[in-house]
User: What shape does this take?
Amino acid sequence: MNLVGSLFSSSIGRKILMAVTGVILVGFIIGHLVGNLQVFQDPDHLNGYGAFLHNLGPLLWVARIGLLVAVFIHIWVATVLTIENHAARQVKYGVKHTIRATLASRLMRWTGVVVLAFIVYHLAHFTFGYAQASTFKENIPHYFMAEQYRVAGFPVIDKGAEVLDLRTMVILGFQQPIVAVFYMIAVGLLSVHLLHGFDSMFQSIGWRSAKWAGALRKVTIAFCLAYFLANAAIPGAVLAGKLQPSEPARVAAHR
Assistant: This one.
């Protein structure tokens, strides 16, 4: 109990919490991206993936609640550390030494706020359907699987199963230019947030040293750039007309 209490009460403990929750959230966004990229494959893939997650039932909600807890702890720790940093500055500097600070670090709080707003909207848009176009929201189509959907080699969705047409939902959502542009801006800000977050995480867990700092920075930049481009490719392909909804013959009206 003392160990748990020290994580929340001490500065070092809070930095560890920031790093741990950051790792959890990074793991989620990578898995989320891998799942979403199935939109470029046959509709069976993304629709089967969505049905697989939905069929997890309570386990899916356990994962969601765990992620929300990680998000709130991450935000709380960031807020407390920011307040502590401001309080530690007893003397105001005559000249602001912000030249050494990276743009990502200076924008950390603002990118965090925008990313939080994006998460809320993204859940409303694709998880709960509240932000979908009214004609689609009221009559979300279902899709007939042409092939089995497998996870790690195990069949989880049978051929011919009727599942929610998640792929069409995603495509129709991004056909709205405002939604697509907002999504690309948000994932861009998330990538900037990650850029500084990785530096801080490596520093907190002791992996960042003079010897490895340069290499870690290059890997971090490459990862964040790849993450942004992969995410932006989805709405970009929709706006360019490269991704189209499922064939009408494979879709049934929602019953």
Summary: The first helix runs from residue 2 to 9.
